[in-house]
Design brief:
This protein is an all-alpha fold. It contains 12 helices and no strands.
């Protein structure tokens, strides 16, 4: 059994999802770290929901949302001629939603540690809010940015329940590494299952060690 198509597809999925997550997490993490709105707990709960919601539940509702009978699914069919469910694009959407807290929480934590007087001093010197964000806040939160990127990438690599529900098991199209392991076990190909599982275990240990080392040096913590 050739596992390289699944590996390549997984790396593509993780890379694209991570880029999208960072684009979303940066402003959202900043807003959650600085806002005093009464709705903040609600948005924090929505952001963290994938941490406690069973992947199959999230995957089921995403599958329903992507159905051709819905507005989103129907629009996608009219534009592309293909269904959103059981497609690579559907996997990207599901991965972004499922990994959202792994990107937002480190960014929020990092932005929360920036002293307010530093930003106030920048404003007194004539810096606009945008200038202060890009020249002061973002560089000071770089460890949180790195942590968010690493965790988002690693979490996407290990996804199973959500991608199985949304993408199914289509070789070369939606069969990622975790699904490849599942398929290998089902077909009693334990050698392939052991090989892929071992390297995912090694990868996870390397990622966690790097993240904890980064946090120990003063980076952002998760949660």
């Amino acid at each position: 059994m050739s596992v390289w198509p699944a590996i390549w597809l997984t790396l593509q999925l993780a890379a694209i999802s991570t880029v999208i997550l960072l684009i979303i997490a940066m402003p959202l993490g900043w807003w959650l770290a600085t806002t005093e709105a009464r709705t903040k707990p609600l948005f924090e709960a929505i952001t963290a929901l994938p941490l406690v919601l069973p992947p199959t539940v999230l995957g089921f509702y995403l599958l329903v949302l992507m159905s051709p009978d819905t507005a989103l699914g129907g629009l996608w069919v009219r534009i592309t001629g293909d269904t959103l469910a059981f497609s690579f694009t559907g996997l990207v959407i599901a991965s972004v939603i499922y990994s959202l807290p792994f990107a937002v929480q480190p960014m929020q934590s990092a932005f929360s540690t920036i002293p307010k007087n530093t930003l106030e001093a920048a404003r007194t010197l004539g810096a606009t809010s945008r200038d202060a964000f890009f020249s002061i806040s973002l560089p000071m939160a770089r460890r949180g940015f790195i942590t968010a990127a690493v965790l988002s990438f690693a979490h996407t690599i290990g996804e199973f329940g959500v991608v199985l529900m949304v993408g199914g098991n289509i070789p070369g199209k939606t069969r990622v590494i975790s699904i490849e392991i599942f398929t290998a076990v089902e077909t009693l190909d334990y050698r392939t299952a052991h090989l892929l599982s071992f390297w995912l275990l090694v990868f996870a240990m390397i990622v966690l060690t790097a993240v904890y080392f980064l946090n120990r040096r003063g980076g952002a913590r998760i949660g």
